[in-house]
C-alpha cells in the first residue's frame, strides 16, 4: 500500500513536464503568428527595407 501512496505522491509533485509542455505550446503559437505576419506583411517590409537601403 505504501508503494501506491508513494507513486501517487510522485505524480502530484511532478509538474515540471506539464510546465515544459505549456511553454512549448506558447512558443509554437508565437512562431505561427510570426510566420503568418511575415506572409501577409512580407511585401510591405521588403519595400520599407529597400527604401531604407537606397537612402543609405
Describe it.
With 56 residues, the protein is an all-alpha fold. It has a domain at 24-56. The protein is 93% helix and 0% strand. The protein is built from two helices and no strands. It has helices at 2-13, 16-55.
Shape: rod-shaped
Helix content: over 70%
Q: Give the strand tally.
A: 0
Poorly predicted ranges: none
Topology:
Layout: H1 2-13, H2 16-55
Question: What brief labels describe this structure?
Answer:
0% strand; mainly alpha; 56 residues
Tell me briefly what this model is.
By secondary structure, this protein is mostly helical. Helix content is 93%, strand content 0%.
